[in-house]
């Protein structure tokens, strides 16, 4: 996946946290996509780098502290994206959390938290972008 400059323009971020081959997903408590499972994330605040925003959002939604994140990819959502409709293009940068500590609890706008392996996600409403990242990363477990 690509590299992102520290000052890149993105509207939102998400953080991928993995433990024992399970991914931390939050149930979205608000629209858009209320009830869907996604990686913890949200909008960037003024003056924040995408990396800082990813670590902040992970902590705010789950209580998990990431000491470092690395960029994975960026998705653009718009009105044609069924699980995340947006009236204008919304750029979401996805980061992998490293050295994450703490116990996950639902906080902020997360209604619940789940640790799920890739094969367990079919039983839930999980966004296509999350599944794409999960399948990409799960291949590294097999290596």
Please characterize this protein's 3D structure.
The protein contains two helices and eight strands. The chain has 143 residues and is an alpha+beta fold. It has one domain: Nucleoside Triphosphate Pyrophosphohydrolase (Alpha-Beta Complex). The chain has a four-stranded mixed β-sheet, with helices on one face. Strands 2, 3, 4 and 8 form a four-stranded antiparallel β-sheet that branches. Strand 2 and strand 3 form a beta hairpin. The longest helix is centred in the last third of the chain and has 15 residues. The chain is globular, with a radius of gyration of 14 Å.
Lay out the secondary structure.
Elements: E1 12-16, E2 18-19, E3 22-28, E4 37-38, E5 41-43, H1 50-62, E6 68-77, E7 90-98, E8 110-116, H2 128-142
Summary tags:
alpha+beta, 31% strand, 143 residues, four-stranded mixed beta sheet, Nucleoside Triphosphate Pyrophosphohydrolase, four-stranded antiparallel beta sheet, 8 strands
Give a quick precis of the structure.
Helices cover 20% and strands 31% of the residues.
